[in-house]
Design brief:
This protein is an alpha+beta fold. 46% of the residues lie in helices and 12% in strands. It has one domain. The radius of gyration is 16 Å and the shape is globular.
């Protein structure tokens, strides 16, 4: 019998299922989720160096594992980067690691955070909820998979606007209920 999943993993998988897939914020996430090809790794890192090590190890795992077995990885970071500015700064280090290992062009890091805020928005703007997650996340994507998914989608450029419209169509109380995990931290 396998051990019970980490509570953070459970929370991230619940967010994926109910929000990302449930609201169709990412039209490409459903199939790999159903096929169990999304890895959620809960990092115990407490320093940027430890997190970079976890990132490098997870990118290596993704690189060495066929896409039929592992499509993408979400690194959950519950013990650090709670401040969105710190998180945003760390993304530069993540990109530098991709360059260092010559993985730029093969992988990219997408960003999700409990306090995600797009440039030129207020923290309370509905649009920010499209990238809000239970804990800071580093989403490791295969460039080939992204390109294939975009090529197969009838209008990939409309996805961000459609997602923002979904969030804006909700009342504040509906958003609060859906994102209740943000209130519990």
């Amino acid at each position: 019998m396998s051990p019970a999943p980490h509570p953070v993993e459970t929370s991230v998988r619940g967010w994926l299922e109910s929000i990302v897939i449930g609201l169709n914020l990412c039209p490409f996430a459903g199939r790999p989720f159903r096929d169990n090809r999304i890895r959620v790794f809960v990092s115990e890192a407490k320093t940027p160096l430890d997190l970079l090590t976890d990132l490098q190890l997870e990118l290596t795992r993704l690189h060495d594992t066929p896409v039929e077995q592992l499509e993408t990885t979400l690194i959950a970071v519950p013990l650090m980067l709670a401040d969105f500015a710190d998180y945003n700064d760390f993304l530069d280090e993540a990109d530098a690691l991709l360059d260092q290992y010559e993985w730029s062009g093969d992988f990219q890091v997408a960003s999700f955070h409990p306090d995600y805020q797009f440039a030129d928005t207020l923290p309370t703007d509905a649009s920010n909820y499209t990238n809000r997650s239970p804990v800071p996340l580093l989403h490791l994507l295969r460039e080939d998979s992204v390109e294939t998914a975009i090529a197969l989608h009838p209008d990939p450029d409309s996805i961000p606007e459609t997602n923002i419209a979904k969030m804006e169509a909700m009342t504040l109380s509906e958003r609060r209920a859906l994102f209740a995990f943000l209130e519990r931290r």
